[in-house]
Design a protein that fits this description.
The complex is a heterodimer of chains A (252) and B (433). Chain A is of the alpha/beta class. Chain A is built from 10 helices and 10 strands. Chain B has 2 domains: 300 residues, ABC transporter involved in vitamin B12 uptake, BtuC; 97 residues, no CATH class. Classes of the chains: A alpha/beta (252), B mainly alpha (433).
């Protein structure tokens, strides 16, 4: 079986500073994979490399058996990979509904049509309404995205990645800045919506990590120091030393 | 479970139907206005005003398709207007020469001409966004003017190209020679073009243009190339600017290099911005008002360009949403019946505003006439007083009026703003409940 996502020897540096060195990783289709690591480990850079935001120095990225190295972000999206951002990135002047609808347009077959009514894509509108309910943003449907509360914006940020029906989804710290209750709701949502898809997420909240993840990769100082099922990562001495430290008691 | 969902869907479709009805109503009203207007303004001046308004509306709407909808500031939009106009003009000359085409259809040639030119121009400029895009359009505008001057065989050099709109075959007995007849042709195209441009805002590409305006990076990660969306929007905008240029060709029967130059590009930016870039109606309001102002002020004073510049600066500073933005920020207050409260606060500003305005007019007229008098012209009268711009003390009166008025305004303005904020908050609270 081919992996949903396969990273083969990725290297990236900014000027003389080496950010990522020889990252290789295989993520099986239909699993939930979490990437953890201390700040500055290169987690977000890794996402940027996979999704075409940044160019690789060396190495290859394969998505569902296809080499996507060097493709533009929109070309990668069209091959079934969607992502969210650590720093919320929405369409501030457009309503919540329009934000989600734009995210679903490519896979709904809207193309660049300027001769068809957008409202005529009934299935897309249905998908968006459904997502509004799942995100509990129904009452905020017609509010501009920049008028939303922070937690609502974070929920919409995740929604933009989920609505288009991509088979592989990368979420960069989806629960950052959320309260405990909001985090729990998000975990439930992700569990539900990741069924039948591959989910890769960067996450700091260890309870979320061990709750959701089928496999975990630990990134530290630009390299993979451990990768595998939660039980094995939990027991890894190098992981404890490099990253978990004071948080180690959470794991036992 | 399905119960709330169906109610929701029912509400949505009712909303959609009401929206559709409202649009049909607005468009119907526009047709009625277009049919009545030439009877209310039947004079030669009135008709020529209406004809210019129709052209300006289409041009400004096409400009706002870029600026308001797509976040692209095009400093050379008159290139598509003017070259569309030249395309129409050449076809008109062939029609005069016996080509069997109805003159009323010629703005379509302008549309094709505008779009045709927008393809290479957009191909270069839309690869960039923001300031870089604006700079490239400025360069393209200079290039286009230079080319037009360089090829007098096509563009007529200094004299331009002229044609005769009554030279074609008559349509239902009309030859469109009279201003009252060409009005209906221009009104027809203005309505069609406005309706089509409104339609585009409701399509996938129209919505994507909004998305690219707000956040091009995110669009890229949702499967669309932002540059491609800008490019397609740019071509469409050139298409509609070309219609306006074609209308201009039929109206004026002459086109020169000034129709594609930076002044024409500046004029459309001015009217669109003053009307308001945030709404579809904004450019229409701006086109109507500025055209009116230009022609009305043009009969009163030769310094009207000074005034439209001042209005522009004032709008950018204090009302960046334009006139439609002002309307939008007051609509809920008026609907909530709170207009009375606000009126008192605004009336308190009126004397100070009038004093300031008098000062500004005095300064502008003196400045303008200084030039005229030095050139040997007559100084003339202002507010019944003989004006002599070369005597220094005459400058002191308007200067004092202006400074006094402006000082008064800046003291009173916070009160009026507070009154507006209070009323707006009150109206919002009432609606919330």
């Amino acid at each position: 079986m081919t992996s949903a996502l396969s990273l083969r020897g990725l290297y990236k540096s900014f000027g003389p500073t080496s950010i990522l060195r020889d990252i290789s990783l295989d993520i099986a289709a239909g699993t939930r994979h979490t990437i953890i690591g201390p700040n500055g480990a290169g987690k977000s850079t890794l996402f940027h490399l996979i999704t075409g935001r940044l160019r690789l120095d060396r190495g290859e990225v394969w998505l569902a058996g296809e080499n996507i190295t060097g493709l533009s972000p929109h070309a990668i999206f069209r091959r079934g990979l969607a992502r969210s951002f650590q720093v919320t990135s929405l369409f501030p002047r457009l309503s919540v509904f329009e934000n989600l609808r734009i995210a679903g347009m490519r896979n709904a077959g809207c193309g660049h049509a300027f001769w068809r009514r957008l409202d005529g894509f009934a299935e897309l509108a249905e998908q968006v309404e459904e997502m509004l309910t799942l995100l509990e943003l129904g009452p905020r449907r017609d509010v501009a995205a920049d008028a939303l509360a922070y937690a609502e914006q974070r929920a919409l940020e995740i929604g933009l990645a989920l609505v288009g029906g991509a088979h592989t989804i990368l979420l960069d710290e989806p629960t950052a800045g959320m309260s405990r209750a909001e985090t729990e709701r998000t975990v439930t949502l992700l569990r539900r919506l990741s069924a039948g898809r591959t989910l890769v997420m960067i996450e700091h909240d260890l309870s979320v990590v061990f709750d959701l993840a089928d496999t975990i990769t630990v990134l530290a100082d630009g390299g993979v120091i451990a990768s595998g099922p939660p039980a094995s990562v939990r027991g890894d001495a190098r992981v404890r030393a490099a990253y978990l430290g004071a948080a180690a008691e959470v794991l036992t | 479970m399905s119960q709330p969902a169906t109610t929701l869907a029912a509400t949505k479709s009712r909303h959609a139907r009401q929206g559709g009805l409202k649009i049909a109503l607005v468009f119907g009203l526009a047709i009625v206005v277009a049919l009545i207007a030439p009877h209310l303004f039947a004079s030669g001046f009135g008709l020529s005003l209406l004809n210019r308004m129709a052209i300006a509306i289409v041009f400004a709407l096409s400009f706002n398709m870029l600026l308001g909808q797509g976040g692209m500031l095009d400093f050379g939009h008159a290139v598509f207007f003017g070259l569309g106009g030249f395309a129409t003009m050449h076809l008109l000359k062939w029609v005069d020469g016996g080509l069997p085409l109805p003159v009323a259809l010629l703005p379509l040639a302008g549309a094709l001409g505008g779009a045709f030119v927008a393809v290479p121009a957009g191909w270069i400029s839309t690869r960039r966004e923001g300031t870089a895009f604006a700079m490239i359009t400025l360069g393209i505008a200079e290039l286009a003017v230079a080319l037009v001057v360089m090829i007098p065989q096509w563009f007529g050099g200094e004299e331009g190209v002229s044609g005769d709109r009554s030279g074609g075959m008559p349509l239902f007995g009309f030859d469109f020679g009279a201003a009252s007849q060409i009005y209906y042709v221009l009104a027809f195209w203005a309505l069609i073009a406005a309706a089509l441009m409104w339609g585009v805002t409701r399509t996938p590409l129209g919505r994507l243009a909004n998305a690219v305006r707000d956040n091009p990076l995110r669009v890229d990660f949702l499967g669309y190339d932002p540059a491609r969306i800008r490019f397609l929007t740019f071509i469409l905008s050139g298409f509609f600017a070309g219609i306006a240029g074609g209308m201009q060709a039929l109206n004026d029967e002459i086109l020169t290099v000034s129709n594609i130059g930076s002044q024409a590009s500046g004029a459309v930016l001015l009217m669109t911005y003053i009307g308001g870039v945030g709404t579809f109606s904004g450019p229409i309001i701006g086109a109507v008002l500025i055209t009116l102002l230009q022609m009305a002020l043009g009969t009163l004073t030769d310094a009207w360009q000074l005034y439209s510049g001042l209005i522009f600066v004032a709008m950018v500073l204090w009302a960046p949403g334009g006139i439609s933005g002002i309307i939008r920020s007051h609509a809920p207050i008026l609907r909530g019946g709170l207009g009375g409260r606000l009126l008192a606060a605004y009336l308190a500003l009126l004397p100070a505003a009038l004093v300031t305005l008098a000062g500004i007019i005095g300064l502008a007229e003196l400045a303008y006439r200084l030039q005229a008098v030095r050139g040997g012209g007559k100084p003339g009268h202002l507010f019944g007083l003989a004006v002599s711009p070369t005597t220094p003390w005459q400058w002191l009166i308007p200067l004092a009026l202006f400074l006094f008025g402006a000082a008064l305004l800046s003291r009173l303005a916070p009160g009026a703003r507070a009154a507006w904020q209070e009323a707006a908050a009150f109206a919002a609270g009432r609606r919330g409940r």
